[in-house]
Amino acid sequence: MILRRLILRILFSVFLLVAVAVISFSLFHLIPGDPALRLLSDEMGGAQPTEEMVEVFRRAHGFDRPYPEQFLTFVTRAMSGDLGTSLRTGQPVAEEIAHRLGQTLQLASASLALTLVLSLGLGFATALRPQARFDRIVRWWTSLMLATPGFWLALVLLLVFSLHLGWLPVAGYGTPAHIVMPSVVAALVSSGLCIRFVRDRVRQTLQLPHLQTARMKGLSPAQVFLGHALPFALPALIALFGLQAARMIDSLIVIETVFGWPGLGSYIAEAVMGRDLPAMQASLMTAAGVYILLGLLSDILIVLVDPRAEAVL
Amino acid sequence: MIRVPHEPTRWDRRGWWLLRRPGPWLFVAVLVLVLFGDDIAPHDPQLRNLRNRLLPLSLDHPLGTDAMGRDILSRLMAAFTVTPVAAFVTVGLSSLIGTAYGFVAAMVSRPLSSMMMRFVDGVLSLPLIAVALVASSIFGVGLYSIVTALVLLHWADYARVVRSALAAEMSRTYVLAAQALGVPPLRLAMTHLVPAMTGALLVLASHSLAVTILTFAGLSFIGLGAEPGSPEFGLMVAESRDHMRSSPHLMILPGLAVFGLVLMFNRFADTLSDRDPLAGPFRTPSSRKRRI
Prior knowledge:
The complex is a heterodimer.
Chain A: H1 2-30, H2 35-43, H3 51-60, H4 67-79, H5 93-128, H6 133-147, H7 150-164, H8 176-206, H9 209-216, H10 221-259, H11 264-273, H12 277-305
Helix pairs in contact in A: 1-12, 5-8, 5-10, 6-8, 7-8, 7-10, 8-10, 9-10, 10-11, 10-12, 11-12
Chain B: H1 10-13, H2 22-40, H3 72-79, H4 83-107, H5 110-124, H6 128-139, H7 143-170, H8 173-180, H9 185-221, H10 233-239, H11 249-275, H12 285-291
């Protein structure tokens, strides 16, 4: 039964990936103007090609074929790692993206680790002693963090710690000092939601009848917490952090741009600025692919931890 | 000291106690700015005057001028008519579409309704940036494309919340009783089901107003939102980056405005969900069940 659900869930992800491929393929044709004309004039450095040249180009690149056939060519090329060449740099987009994705993963894992530490630590601490002064301070802090624009926090920290105090480098990539500010900003921005969620979820769990029983039969607080509360709250926490890891893509675009971190996020921003269509198409597919795969991964993890949860798949 | 609870007077019962709180006053001030911000601005927010570049604070320009010689105060006031309005439109459109969709999904029978919810799951598993990219390359960079992109994503949240709120409500005995009495479906919906889910919807809407304002400012900051040159918070921050060291207030003030706006809407949503404990974003038991 679980296996059948699992296969269905994987098929659903595959279907979503195909849908994303269709969207990014149609991006090419939905943009106002003839795609063949646009590509050719880009190749000629912006000059206006003649009607005949466009016709020849269209024939040569298959733009006169029916859409489904064009789509199949697009997908088979993408599968074999050919995502076109960037209009700005002239490099193969696939190579650029693979390079950038690795650097984004460094930043994303650093900030996700920080988010985990912050939200699990503060969330558990406040859930165990609700309404204490510490709980109120954390609550106040999370409502501030929920309202802070990430790009602004990044610039303010940059102003204070790099320009005025000179403790950390302004922007760039390479040394360990470079990763500190971007990952701290990303973690702070996402910690607002995470701390609250962890607190509320653990608090609800602690009030459940079977936990009262566990306390009453004389288990130590640690045993109650590790043996009974944690397994119960775990699936929700996995769902939260899976979603948060996926959302990281959206917040990293802005943060990478501010700190000049050469990752996928700043690549997307550069592609948008430079109206670089192949780069936009490819980064769209990559971002959506990562997003969908993370969703699949967290759903599978949840089922592994909590056998009752097979219904979600 | 024992605090004696305040005896509710007639004024209190009519809601006049609200006037003693800062929140409603702030809300009215923001509303005035949103409606008339660019009319009551002391200067033309778009007027460039290169002789007045980066002026310090003065009586004529209370918050100084930016690198183009435009008055900061006027630009900030005008920005209130851009981002919050776009966010209102986004939330309004997506809540309408999502509510209708969720309603239908809750009413139709099993295979069709689960197919409809799978579609919602599919929409929710697209990253925002992908949809924003697609919309702005098709319609061109501008607020309209971002509103479109956000509506295309956000309606799914409403559909999910409405459907699960309705599914929980439909199994309550008073709804069963009404059905047994022969109340027609539309009247049942209007008298029982709509009131039951307005709380959850209001909380979701005010939360997503806050989130949408943040998203707008962020997208404008990277050049995917408002048209370059228009008064918008994220854009103003982006334009002031080059002068961050010499005039930091150019960068700090628009961010503070966004921060205040978002904080206000979040507080509003929190107050609402405290009054209706079932309506909180993570508290509706039935709505969480599907996600976990």
